[in-house]
Every structure is written in C-alpha cells, then in structure tokens.
Amino acid sequence: MAFDFGLKQIGVAIGNCLLATTQPLAILKARDGIPDWQAVGNLLEEWQPDLLLVGNPLNMDGTESELGARSRKFGNRLHGRFGLPVEFADERLTSFEAKQDLAASGHSGDYKAQPIDSYAAELILKSWMRSAGG
Predict the structure, then answer these.
(1) Structural domains present in the chain
(2) Which of 4, 19, 30, 93 is the most exposed place for a label (fewest CB within 10 A)?
C-alpha cells in the first residue's frame, strides 16, 4: 500500500507485486499532515498489505526537503501504530506526472474538485514496483 503524503490530503493506492497491478484507493483528509488514524487502520484491515510505501518528496538535487522530513515522520508513525514494514520511495515529479496523465485522459484541471493524490500514490507504487522493490 502506497501513500502520497501531504499536509492537507494523503493519497492512498494499493498494488500486488505478483500480478504487477495497482489501483488508486482513497484520499485521506489530514490536518497538518496528521490523518484520521482510524481511517488508515480501516484501509489496512480491509486490504491487509505486507508493506507500506511512503513517498519521499526529495528536492530536485536529491536532498531531503522540509516536506520530506514530515513524510518520514508520517512513515515512522505508520510503523509505530500498525507494526508493518515501511519503505520510502523517491516521489519527485509524481504529482506533475499525475497531472499530465490525467489531463491527457480528459481531467478538467480542477484539482480541488477532482484531487489527484491517490493517482499520485499509484504512480509512486508503480515506480517502486519497476525498480528495486517489486
């Protein structure tokens, strides 16, 4: 299960490494990066993932960003609360790529009305599955 961390919203996607499939799941509302932990727990209970993948928004030069530090804290809290292994994945440009992909498929461009966070989480997961993780 992958998370696209944000301060107001956290996108969630699920994947299966054996079948090489992914799908966007949900967008969790967050308050200053803190989600409704019960909602997270419900998703984990429903989908039973083996691994939690958290996008790490690095700066373009590869250094950790301020949001990246918050993302790591979120990942550490996931592990602490639910006891599942957590990995971090470079997510540079995934929101940009998500916007391009969705625009090509007819998205209105109104990202407040039609958020892309769960699709960005799916891109993080796909990229991870293509590389070392999957």
Answers:
(1) 2-130 (3.30.420.140)
(2) 19
